[in-house]
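Possible regression after last week's pipeline update?

I re-ran a chain I had predicted before the update to compare outputs. Posting the input and the new output here so someone can diff against the archived version. Not blocking, just want to make sure nothing changed silently.
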Amino acid sequence: MAPNSFRSIDDVPEAQRDSLTPNRPGGQRGTQRWVLWFSVGLLSALAGLMVSWVTYQVGSLEPLSFRPAVTTLSVPPSAAIPEGSGTLLGHRPYAEAPPESLVPLPSAPEIQLHVAAAEALENMMAAARVEGVTLMPLSGFRSVQDQQYLFFSIKAERGQDATTRAEVSAPPGYSEHHTGYAVDLGDANAPETNVQINFEETAAFRWLQQNATRYSFELSFPLNNPQNIQYEPWHWRFVGDSASLETFYRNP
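New output (post-update):
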């Protein structure tokens, strides 16, 4: 009898055997599989709900306005340009003034200066004349080409080395005269002192010492100047506007 009972079950297709024999191991596996898929589906649904909720919350937030960062830069003392930086034989580099910035001096048309410097110089000369002093302009704007001759040609004529020549004349590209703000002055009553150290003994120099700053002129190369340039009591520069001030004082 036993063989026949087994045979009857074996004749049933495999797809129906689990339902007919619930106590067999295969039926347990089916139940576990159903529970597993149900759990996966439930977790997926919960995850979907969570994503939807987060998306809704983010979308409801007000957009943030852009606020650029404000940074205050400060240059430490160690970052300042050291003395002598960018110089050549003690002289600082200067750009050549554009022609449109220059005008001839009314009192000496062969000499050109920057517009602001020319006006201040003429006023200063007029004030000196009132006090019996006659200032005489000797040289104003000089181009780089002019300075080429003054430095190299005269250096060769006098048999000077570059260092010696640089004590009294700047290399081309390094003269204050390129800026149109510098002027060489003399005393019309003592022409023998023109471009000489003993110009300091004249009435014109004494007047300049007392009054030049009133017209925004200052001595470029006083005694013991930090550039180690020869003392030039005749060489004055205008520092009466922002452009001239930056030209001469931007670098220490």
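Follow-up from reviewer: compared with the archived run. The first strand starts at residue 102 and ends at 105. Marking as no regression found.
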